[in-house]
Amino acid sequence: MANESGNLILFLSKTILFFAILAIFAVGQRLFYEQMLPYYFWGFNLVLLLYTASLYMISRVYNGFNFGNTGLQEIIISWVICLIIANVFQYFILSLLAIQLLPVLGIAIILTIQIIFVVPMAIFINWLYYRQNPAHKAAIVYGSKERLTEYCSIISLQSKRFKVDHIISQHDAVGSLLDIVDQSDSIFFLDVDEKQQDWLFEYCYMNNKHTYILPKFSSILINTASTIWFSNTPVFSLRRTDSDMGTQIIKRIMDIVISLVAIILTSLLMISVWLAVRLYDNRPAVYKQVRVTRGGRLFTLYKFRSMRPDAEDDGVPRLTAKGDNRITPIGRFIRKTRIDELPQLFNVLSGSMSIVGPRPERPEIAKQYEEIYPTFAFRTKVKAGITGFAQIYGRYNTSPEDKLFLDIMYIESFSILEDIKLMLQTVKVIFQSSTSTEGVEDGSTTALK
Description:
Largest sheet: 4 strands, parallel
Distance between the termini: 46 Å
Helix content: 40-55%
Low-confidence stretches: none
Number of domains: 3
Number of strands: 10
Strand content: 5-15%
Oligomer: single chain
Structural class: alpha/beta
Mean pLDDT: 86
């Protein structure tokens, strides 16, 4: 009963957050723009309904209500971006209705008040969530120790959600396994044999335990499979056909339009960065590098140079390492803010890349990955992209296997709507912690552990 009342308080808090944001906008719209708009009561409500719908959809894209599963900093960044997009969109709608550009000051004041309200409210709801949902007692069941240390360090970052009390091998006695499951709220499965995992899953399910699994390639495919029925028996269909020609044409048109608009909007910024990099050491500002795209084809990728010109004079292709002294001061800034990626908009415009797709690897490094993970080549089923699952949910030093899983999830669940969602989510990544651009371990040339 206490937990149910706590969840009710959380729900009410989130509801208050959302409707308070709407109320601030409604009052501000009446205060700043009512005299300039050619409609009355019902028109006002219809416009407010449009704002409500857009705010809700954008907040869902940015996981604004995902307290507990998302860090507080990310929640706040999500809401700030969400409010900026929703208010800018509504400002232009109001301007179209008024047949003139309305004063920007009004929408700026509305946005400022909303952000001032959202930040402490998000902090309160986040505190309330963890007060009502203390860290779960967790156990890790492993089959292989190969990634055990790495996996434990990942879970330790979620210390508010999980407290790992037990780490046990799948080969331990059945009684010991069941005792630990009984004592735990959440169970993590790491490289457990399929047969062993199946009966443990059933036991956890029957005893209402939260279960988490480190996926394998086959489970990623099953997750994106379609369900068909043979008589009254459900069957997972893993064979995916390529997207139809119409979808490919729409995706290409989106790439052309978005890259062209982005080039125009960022032209002054790109010129400024080009001058800064060029003047720093009087060497070329644009860096060219051969990468792999769809079907294993090679193309030349463009980036603003962030390293010294002699960064690879030894002839060894390598990824950026933590604290890499090859990075220039200007390069450190443009890498952290992702500005170094802007020239790739010309790759998209020319057709060698897409806005959304797997990140293109260098052929030498891709070959090394494929020797250990042969399925890594599956990433080249589609055209390489600037952003995607791996770029949003992963990091620069994310393991090749995890990059593969993220990219396969994108490839097998591709849709135009999914592409639009990923483009919007990319905006948030730029404002998040610099850990997403963190290099590989010192002395490593790839992201292999």
